[in-house]
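Show me a record, fold above all:
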Amino acid sequence: MKNIRIGLFGFGCVGQGLYETLNGSKNFSGQISKICIKNPDKPRPLDSKLFTTKANDILDNPEIDVIVELIDDADAALEIVTLALKSGKSVVTANKKMVAEHLADLIELQAKTGSALLYEGAVCGSIPIIRTLEEYFGHEPLNEIKGIFNGSTNYILTKIFEENLSYETALLQAQSLGFAETDPTLDVKGFDAKYKLSILLTHAFGIHVPPNQIVNLGIDHLKAADLEYAREKGFTIKLIAQAKRIADKVYAFVSPQFIKPEHSLASIKNEFNAVTLNGEFCDDQLFIGKGAGSLPTGAAVLSDISALSYDYKYEYKKHYNLGRLPFTNDSLLEVYVSFDNPHEIDLGDFESIQHKYFSFDHSYVVGKMCINNLLDEKWLNNPKNNLVLCANGTENTLGSLCVKGLSAEIEELKKGQQLLEKITV
């Protein structure tokens, strides 16, 4: 093992977690040489000589071996990572937004410079899922990867279902414990899980899918009636990120899902994450670990730094060795959609309707809808409605082609909807 001298950008929650895990490790040879921060006046628990506000004090320092980027600005993070790789330094980052949006370019840059970029800490906290996909499953065709990729939302949903807390109270608890940010948008609207899913698509299936092509629906529009519906049916709700290969196509999305009590993900609670894999040879695999908090993520970052001391690199075996699988959103999902007023949804977006309920204060429809429709702004995190994927909704419908045109049943429902609109005006 080489003695690693680290240049660290950012000393927030994860940065402090890295410092603590590094100093608590008994089998790591290395130290932080310099830390670049934005606010020099903020009180910090370390010697002020260790800090700088100048990026070049780290980037241009020949004595620093590894750059660790742990800031929350994706654009600034990209600039730091790019400059470091071009200068011949290897980099560790936990910025999932930056990696997801620029992974294709970053892979090309690594190939040109010979430097390595590792980002285990960007996906599912303490679960070593990227290295597992790279090494253990590097040559095995995978059928599916799914799971709970965001610890903040899982904590909130656990408190809602097990302690009957309101969404607002559970969110405040998550924020007070450091599981959710002051602005929780990226977590509760499913963006964080989507960035992680985008990254895993490269390592699981060898394809690059920009985050803006992946549907992400969050949990912040859950209503009391939705929770009552889930409890009546014996379900819990989890925010699930899912990618599945069917024949020669790959589908991926992030959505709240009704989960049956016997499902393996139903028992994953609080800030824990879980990833399930299904492979051609290995069948089903389940990985569980803490996905939120400074120490779990700090431990993942330290693991990447340690791997660099052995000259480890991602080989992107599936990306380079397999044929390019097409990604598509042209398939059906079975969904539950609730709304307060009938004019807030377009029944014409459904391919078919299984169940419907209309009332003056709460209504819902259960039916099949094309994933592509959910990318439209009238569905994508629209506060006027809430969408939850039905239990077994992917098994029953994913891979089914979307068909243009409305069925007679939906035309009839639209007439009923229009009548109810007139009554409620």
The first strand starts at residue 4 and ends at 9.
